[in-house]
């Protein structure tokens, strides 16, 4: 098991847009239950299944396994809860950490979220100038909730 | 994807009990939703994750991946819907096919189900003399339903 400590922010400006190389992510859920999330993700031309346990604060258990691309495609198209999530991800290095900026498409178009993964809950880090308010504790921004309550319906 | 065609029967007698070598199975569900079952199973000292799509008649899509034993243990103990299923499985060859006889434990103790997997829906096969009535279409016998409505509550 890995333990994932993520903090999530909204962008303050468009400063992220010219940085990093956007990669298309398509992801869906075989389970979006908060105690046992099962996520299928195609990232570029690779596919993964990720299991996530319930979050305690900003920490949650996470297990990831590679998946045959064809199987992942079929899960997304035929089995996963609909709609699936589609977004462009940019990875932007800043002051020793990597920020992942997700620009959502489809029913979540208009939403952009910047995330940083940290080695411990108390780890200090420096925000790039384009990073705005923190939304780590706002469950609406969980990808598993964005399928039920997409950004376009807020 | 594999396609699984299974027919399920109750035993007519105890004739199965002296045959085959019982192997302990512990299994649980990260999703028991009929359209996207995600099953974690420890079979002897091996572990697997199995995805199943909705059944159409006796046919359903099935995909299986090996899983690290430690991860499977943690999923069963901490993440899966409770209670998990525990049963002894015996594999018994008869007239060119293999029967799997599951003897349930715990909250499902007393329940025994015999299953045969067939290459096509119309495949003919011979029943051993200890095999009784068919219950393929009775959803109560789905393992994913036996966690919500265990045999002891019928």
From TrEMBL, chains A, B:
Domain CYTH as annotated: residue spans: 2-148
Active site: 29
PROSITE patterns referenced in this protein's UniProt entry, alphabetically: CYTH
SMART domains: CYTH
Pfam families xref list: CYTH
Family matches, as InterPro entries: CYTH-like_dom_sf, CYTH_domain, NeuTTM/CthTTM-like
Signal peptide span: none
Name of the protein in question: CYTH domain-containing protein
């Amino acid at each position: 098991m890995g333990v994932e400590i993520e903090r999530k922010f909204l962008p303050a400006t468009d400063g992220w847009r010219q940085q990093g190389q956007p990669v298309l992510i398509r992801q869906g859920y075989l389970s979006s239950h908060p105690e046992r999330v099962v996520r299928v993700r195609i990232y570029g031309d690779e596919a993964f299944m990720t299991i996530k346990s319930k979050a305690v604060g900003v920490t949650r258990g996470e297990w990831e396994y590679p998946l045959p691309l064809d199987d992942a495609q079929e899960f997304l198209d035929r089995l996963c809860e609909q709609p699936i999530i589609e977004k462009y991800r940019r990875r932007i290095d800043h002051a020793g950490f990597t920020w992942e900026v997700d620009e959502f498409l489809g029913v979540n178009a208009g939403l952009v979220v910047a995330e940083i993964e940290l080695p411990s809950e108390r780890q200090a880090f420096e925000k790039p100038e384009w990073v705005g308010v923190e939304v780590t504790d706002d469950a609406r921004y969980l990808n598993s909730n964005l399928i039920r309550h997409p950004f376009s319906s807020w």
